[in-house]
C-alpha cells in the first residue's frame, strides 16, 4: 500500500515469543546481510516515547543500509493498551511467501480489516493514520469483518476501555466520511460502521 514506512508494529502472543524475537533481532545471524559484508543491525532502545505513550514492550531501531532505517514497535498480545490480538485476527492473518521457511519464528500479516481497526483507535492527532485509513478504503474493506471483530474485542477488553476505543473509532470514521464527501465519494460500508458505533455508544 505504501512504498515506505517509518515504523512497523509487531504483536507477539506471549513473553517467551518476545524473548525469542529479541534474540533473533539483537543477535542477527550471518545470513541476514545486505550487500557485500554489510549486516542489518537492530538496536534495542531502552527509553523510547512509544513505550510510555503506546504501551510497547520493546522498541528496536533497524539500521538497514539498503532499505533505510525504521523502528519496530513490539507489543505483547495487546496493542496501544487496547485492541487485543484475537483468535479471529490470527485466523485472518497470512504468512507472506518470503517468511514461509523461517524456523525460529512464524511471521504473519494481519488482514486489512484488522489494520483498519488498529489504526482506527489511535489518537485523533495522528494525521498519518487518517491517510492510511483512506488508502485502506481505496483498497477495499469488508466492514462486516470489522463489526464482528468489535464484538470479539468487547469480550476481551475492559468495558471502560472498550467504550473509549469505540469513541475514537467513531470520531475517526466521521472524519473519513467528511473527507469522502469533500471528494464527492461515499462508502456504504463506512456509513454502516458509523451507524453501528452510534448505537453502541448510545447503549453504553
Can you give a write-up of this model?
The chain has 204 residues and is of the alpha+beta class. It is 49% helix and 13% strand. It has eight helices and six strands; from the N terminus they run βαβαββββαααααα. The strands form two sheets. A four-stranded mixed β-sheet has the order 1-4-3-2, covered by helices on one side. The chain is globular. The mean pLDDT is 83.
Detail the topology: elements first, then pairings.
Blueprint: E1 7-12, H1 15-26, E2 41-44, H2 49-53, E3 58-63, E4 70-76, E5 78-79, E6 83-84, H3 87-92, H4 112-120, H5 127-139, H6 143-156, H7 159-182, H8 188-203
Parallel strand pairs: 1-4
Antiparallel strand pairs: 2-3, 3-4, 5-6
In short:
The chain has 204 residues and is of the alpha+beta class.
Rg calculated over all Cα atoms: 18 Å
Task: Give the termini separation.
Answer: 36 Å
What's the main sheet like?
4 strands, mixed
Molecular shape: globular
Derived from helix and strand composition plus strand pairing, the structural class reads: alpha+beta
- Output the number of helix runs: 8
Order of H and E elements: EHEHEEEEHHHHHH
Mean pLDDT: 83
Number of strands: 6
Percent of residues in beta strands: 5-15%
The strand line-up of the biggest sheet is 1-4-3-2
**Could you name the ranges where pLDDT drops below 50 across 5 or more consecutive residues?**
none
The residue fraction in helices comes out at 40-55%
Amino acid at each position: 500500500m505504501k512504498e515506505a514506512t517509518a515504523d512497523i508494529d509487531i504483536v507477539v502472543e506471549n513473553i517467551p515469543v518476545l524473548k525469542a524475537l529479541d534474540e533473533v533481532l539483537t543477535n542477527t545471524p550471518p545470513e541476514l546481510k545486505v550487500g557485500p559484508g554489510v549486516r542489518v543491525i537492530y538496536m534495542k532502545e531502552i527509553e523510547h516515547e512509544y513505550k510510555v505513550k503506546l504501551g510497547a514492550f520493546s522498541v528496536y531501531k533497524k539500521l538497514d543500509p539498503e532499505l533505510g532505517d525504521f523502528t519496530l514497535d513490539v507489543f505483547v498480545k495487546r496493542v496501544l493498551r487496547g485492541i487485543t490480538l484475537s483468535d479471529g485476527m490470527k485466523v485472518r492473518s497470512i504468512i507472506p511467501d518470503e517468511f514461509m521457511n523461517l524456523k525460529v519464528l512464524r511471521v504473519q500479516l494481519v488482514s486489512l480489516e484488522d489494520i483498519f481497526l488498529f489504526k482506527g483507535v489511535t489518537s485523533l492527532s495522528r494525521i498519518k493514520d487518517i491517510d492510511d485509513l483512506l488508502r485502506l478504503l481505496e483498497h477495499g474493506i469488508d466492514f462486516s469483518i470489522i463489526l464482528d471483530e468489535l464484538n470479539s474485542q468487547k469480550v476481551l477488553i475492559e468495558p471502560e476501555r472498550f467504550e473509549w476505543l469505540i469513541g475514537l473509532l467513531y470520531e475517526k470514521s466521521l472524519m473519513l466520511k467528511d473527507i469522502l464527501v469533500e471528494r464527492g465519494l461515499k462508502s456504504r460500508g463506512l456509513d454502516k460502521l458509523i451507524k453501528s458505533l452510534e448505537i453502541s455508544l448510545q447503549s453504553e
